[in-house]
Amino acid sequence: MNKYLYRIFLPVLLFVFVQNAVAQEPTTGFEEGNNQYVMRESNLSDIGTEKKIKPFTLGAEVGASIDMAGNDLSTFDVDLFGGYRSSSIKCLGLGVGLHNSFSSNRYYIPVYVLFRSNLLRNRSLFFVDFRAGYSSNQMCKGETQGGFFGAAGLGINLSVSKKFGSHLLLGYNFYQVSPFTDEKGAYQDINGNHLVSIRLGISF
């Protein structure tokens, strides 16, 4: 478990440091009479009216999920998504992921409907994230099974502008998994896999 946490939080800290360094809004100075004024826009100040926001968004996320049941099914996650957006809806569309196990040949490929919305209409720091769809799962080499995929999470807007956004998402994931026999011949009596996840994402 400790090695999984190390692999997760080191990239998280690096990403937050880099994106805060490059995504800062420029500072503009101007004079009025004898007074000097300095203006700086906040990270959330560009979430304005709907006419300022493109009606379509594309994004990507990278992160990891920890198996809550201790079945050695923790995963490294990559997701792509796209859909409609407005001033309050961050994304209503479709997503696809590749969630690969850290320590085995097992993986999940979920395809899902994504709904993501700010908690407040304008300049919201937090948002909610819901996903539901179907996942194709390889639980044993050469054998694939599939079933329901669902997820729910709470996100933090790290930086938002009219053209670019970044976020941190903490969530819960569920995969419908049936019992299977692994490569060593051991019977795995698993009925569903429950994981907690942390992901960093960007959107355009």
From TrEMBL:
<feature type="signal peptide">
    <location>
        <begin position="1"/>
        <end position="23"/>
    </location>
</feature>
<protein>
    <recommendedName>
        <fullName>Outer membrane protein beta-barrel domain-containing protein</fullName>
    </recommendedName>
</protein>
<keyword id="KW-0732">Signal</keyword>
